[in-house]
Amino acid sequence: MRLHLAIALALAGCAPAAPEEPTWIDDVRPILAANCIRCHGDPARNLAPPTFRLDVLEDVGGVKGARSMAEFVAARAATLGDMPAEGPSLASWEKETLLQWQYTTAAGRRENNHMPEVTFTAEATAGDQATIHMLITDADRDLVSGELKSDGATVASLRTGAQEIELDTSGLPAGERAITAILDDGTGPMSVDLGTLVVSHANTTPNLTLLAPRRDDLVVAGNQGTILFRATDPDPGADVWVDLKAVTDQAEMGIAERVKPEPSGLGEHGFDTTGWAEGEWRIEATVTDGTASRTVRSEPFIVSHPTGSERYADVRPIIDNVCARCHSAHLPTGPNFRLLPKLQESSGRAWRRVYEREDMPPPSMRAVLPDIVFTDEDRRRLSDWFYAGAPE
Q1: Does residue 170 lie within any of the structural domains?
Q2: Total domain count for the chain?
Q3: Positions in the chain short of pLDDT 50
Q4: What is the C-alpha separation between 172 and 181, in angstroms, rounded?
């Protein structure tokens, strides 16, 4: 027993100490890179919320970065210790580093930093496709993230290592297109000119993007849903139209044929869900120019058949006392639940979290806000209200 105790003490003595003044570059970013960004990166994975990412310091494109989420990260990973969700918990010195950093969120500065290096090749376009090979290395072994841009528009996300990017060039004008990489190794973004990509078109297949419905949007059966899309064709004078239907594994509902987009390419069409079965549906849209066509499907959305009678006034105390503690303008970890339109917009996603997965409110809330009381009856009532589309 004495020998075992001596070994344990010796190992404890070898554990690194938390820095007194941690910085993002030297201390925090390596911890998050090793433990967090496999889920909380870009894109978010494993059901992580897309409202924040921990692979960058600053906010990007309306998505919160690590600096904005420092207090939240310290609460989940250090105080409560329920993150990472899988695998071992953080070491005590890592927890202490995150706890200290939340008060300063210092970026830090690395002397003699080497900027990332990029190798870029592009195969000749075949039809509306081009294959781009990227190799991004960093002499400091930093984790590099960034974007590949064509004439200023983002066409792909970039990361450290080798990537093969299949680029759909149907939406790019013919001719030489400037290709640029915007890279960040943790010390700030840098721009790398990669030359040009030659794009040529014969008859180009029209391009189609479904903007709505989004994943887990909720439509109460018998109500109106809305389809938003963008349909474009680079061919001069091309006349395109879109056919729309809704599908499940067992059923198919026709919605509309030959829907013409606006000159801008945007289109909108409503659909009536009367008679639709309860469950997950997808919109299937086909765009054509009379010669070539393209079919895309939306993410699954929810058609509900609610039976509850809860109204906003009935569940407002639960929302104010529980949900809005985090989902508000003060700590925007998601939609601002103090605004009824945001609740209605997010009703399907909220129902998934509160009812199906039961991971909202999260266990960490009880550690951070011990005065919170949320009963099984509260969960049932709130779930019923969300499933009904969050009626006023």
Answers
A1: yes
A2: 4
A3: 1-13
A4: 17
| 6-55 tens-digit pLDDT | 433 344 445 578 888 899 888 898 898 888 988 898 788 888 888 898 88
Within its chain, how far is the Cα of 263 from the centroid? 30
DSSP 11-72: HHHHSPPPPSS--IIIIIHHHHHHHTTTTSSSS--TT--TTB-SSSSS-BTTBB-TTTTHHH
Shortest CA distance to 69 belongs to which of 38, 35, 28?
28
Read off the DSSP letter of residue 323. Answer: G
Q: Count other Cβ atoms within 10 Å, centred on residue 97.
A: 23
On whether residue 111 sits in a domain, the answer given is no
> Which structural domain range is residue 62 located in?
2-101
pTM for this predicted structure: 0.54
Locate tokens 């008679």: which residue? Answer: 275
Is 47 part of a structural domain of the chain?
yes
Does residue 86 share a domain with residue 156?
Answer: no
Q: Does any domain span residue 110?
A: no
Contact present, 223 and 255 (Cβ < 8 Å): no
CATH number of the domain that residue 227 is part of: 2.60.40.10
